[in-house]
């Protein structure tokens, strides 16, 4: 992702930045007390756009919006909140113009959030300014998962955020289920995991915090704004509720991370989860 300032020789990044403070991802100018807020997604569909926005603000990316200009108001935090929500919707609309992956140039409905390929494209830096991101499907209960986790941690050590696509069953049993509803929910819970949510693994250097222990990553959940350390190698139930850091979903279905450098002249293709 690009780490350069705006084109045209302007300042090195937006006045509004993101920081991890008190287990929350806070956004603001940090010029005086009370001028920052916790970044949360504006609605149930913008987790992908909010994760991308968080990454850009943490990096000081050239494409991060000038939120300070939009937040000039007698109540700057309220204005900043409106600006962040509007930016999430704008970014999602731009991402959904082209679904990418096997859907190619087809648009995507915002009612279903954003596709992982569109998220990967939004995370990718302009040519020559940083890494290009790709989608890679993973099995978080399979034998390759420890290697996937180490690759994720290597990207974080390089200062590159990684987005995790999380999910779970179509439905889960509930305490108030009757006999028929309980049987239906148990059957659905035993089915395949579906993509549900995006969260952001944050490099320790960007968070200004120590590197987590082996197998762990510091993860931002856009639905709550919380940032916590998650042991990615710890056993998790595949059908029940998951940890807070994964948006309470039990599975990691794909990683959206920098792709390996391509040999000169090699054709580029989008990854398929």
Q: Would you write up a description of this structure?
A:
With 273 residues, this protein is of the alpha+beta class. It has one domain (17-258). Helix content is 27%, strand content 19%. The chain is built from seven helices and nine strands, in the order βββααααβαβαβαβββ. The chain has helices spanning 47-59, 67-70, 76-95, 116-123, 145-157, 179-189, 204-207, and strands spanning 17-21, 24-28, 36-38, 133-137, 162-168, 194-201, 216-220, 227-231, 251-258. It has a six-stranded antiparallel β-sheet, with helices on both faces. A hairpin with a 6-residue loop joins β7 and β8 (227-231). α1 crosses α3. The longest helix has 20 residues, at 76-95. It is globular, with a radius of gyration of 19 Å. Residues 4-14 and 268-272 have low confidence and may be disordered.
Radius of gyration: 19 Å
Count of helical stretches = 7
Physical arrangement of strands within the biggest beta sheet: 4-9-5-6-7-8
Largest sheet: 6 strands, antiparallel
What proportion of the residues is helical, as a percent range? 25-40%
Strand composition percent:
15-25%
- What gap, in angstroms, lies between the N and C termini? 21 Å
Note the overall shape.
Answer: globular
Q: What number is the mean pLDDT? A: 84
Write down the domain tally: 1
Q: N-to-C SSE series? A: EEEHHHHEHEHEHEEE
Point out poorly predicted stretches. 4-14, 268-272
